[in-house]
């Protein structure tokens, strides 16, 4: 891809650029056109109530299928999108598509109570996030209460105006979840001030929950914290019945993970959940 940059071919980049750098540049170039080429799509992972198995929502997870490179996981292209600024376009597309899909399911007779969409710190830096969300809700007709935005602790702690944006989002009726809770650095004072509805226990604590005493202690502490602050707590990455039973026993009745369902294509949500 570097070749396209000038008549001197690779000479401009060659001295300093490692194989990895070339690969990254190639990916970056492809990524920039991925939306218009319709290579980007969403999967939806069900969130359930442990005791009843009832569907309480889904998390939208972005996917990129490149014709030559195949399916590229978000951990590879989200950071790239963040570095290049493409995340703003991508994030907007994701949000729009997620809201549209909720309306499509509704029309097809499937009521999904809520959709959770991940936000990057970079999307807050842009400033106009609240207007974007409001526009998309108006355009799709989705009720704001049925949208939940997921941010990590570091987004809240490191984004200057995060408090302002989050309060603004709350004021238009959108719910907020803290993703990967327990892995980042967050102040409980912040948590108390923010209109957050949900804590998502990071899956690293769930993994060995019934064998590792530390993970067990952390998970229980998060569940208790959520309870005492009147927040709902959902466990990520629940893969076994044992983990689900543990959570239920300790007062966490919400879960998301392979034990219940892998992330699904939109149509598979219908097959799986439509009555
Ligand atoms: P996340 O938001 O914490 O999403 C949960 C991740 O855990 C997803 O990976 C999901 O497929 C995976 N997962 C769910 N259940 C299980 C389980 O039982 N076992 C295991 N091993 N994994 C499970 P995915 O889809 O690869 O996404 C990875 C991360 O990429 C997400 O973590 C999120 O940080 C980011 N991401 C995904 N979609 C978006 C998006 O639209 N926008 C932004 N900004 N970030 C996104
Ligand atoms: Mg998430
Ligand atoms: Mg997470
Ligand atoms: Mg994560």
UniProtKB/TrEMBL annotation:
<feature type="domain" description="EAL">
    <location>
        <begin position="24"/>
        <end position="275"/>
    </location>
</feature>
<protein>
    <submittedName>
        <fullName>EAL domain-containing protein</fullName>
    </submittedName>
</protein>
């Amino acid at each position: 891809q570097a070749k396209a940059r000038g008549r001197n071919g690779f000479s401009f980049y060659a001295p300093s650029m490692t194989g990895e750098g070339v690969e990254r540049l190639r990916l970056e170039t492809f990524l920039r056109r991925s939306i218009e080429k319709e290579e980007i799509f969403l999967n939806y992972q069900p969130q359930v109530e442990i005791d009843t198995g009832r569907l309480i929502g889904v998390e939208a997870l972005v996917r990129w299928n490149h014709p030559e490179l195949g399916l590229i996981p978000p951990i590879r292209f989200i950071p790239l999108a963040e570095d290049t600024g493409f995340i703003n376009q991508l994030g907007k597309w994701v949000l729009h598509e997620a809201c549209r899909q909720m309306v499509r399911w509704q029309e097809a007779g499937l009521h999904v109570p809520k959709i959770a969409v991940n936000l990057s710190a970079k999307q807050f830096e842009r400033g106009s996030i609240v207007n974007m969300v409001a526009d998309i809700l108006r355009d799709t007709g989705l009720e704001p209460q049925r949208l939940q935005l997921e941010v990590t602790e570091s987004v809240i702690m490191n984004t200057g105006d995060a408090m302002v944006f989050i309060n603004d989002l709350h004021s238009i009726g959108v719910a907020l979840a803290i993703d990967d809770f327990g892995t980042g650095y967050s102040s409980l004072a912040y948590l108390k001030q923010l209109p957050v509805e949900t804590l998502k226990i990071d899956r690293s604590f769930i993994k060995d929950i019934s064998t590792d005493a530390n993970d067990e202690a952390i998970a229980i502490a998060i569940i208790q914290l959520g309870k005492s602050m009147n927040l709902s707590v959902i466990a990520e990455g629940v893969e076994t019945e044992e983990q689900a039973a543990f959570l239920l026993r300790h007062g966490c009745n919400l879960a998301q993970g392979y034990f219940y369902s892998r992330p699904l294509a939109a149509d598979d949500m219908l097959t799986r959940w439509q009555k």
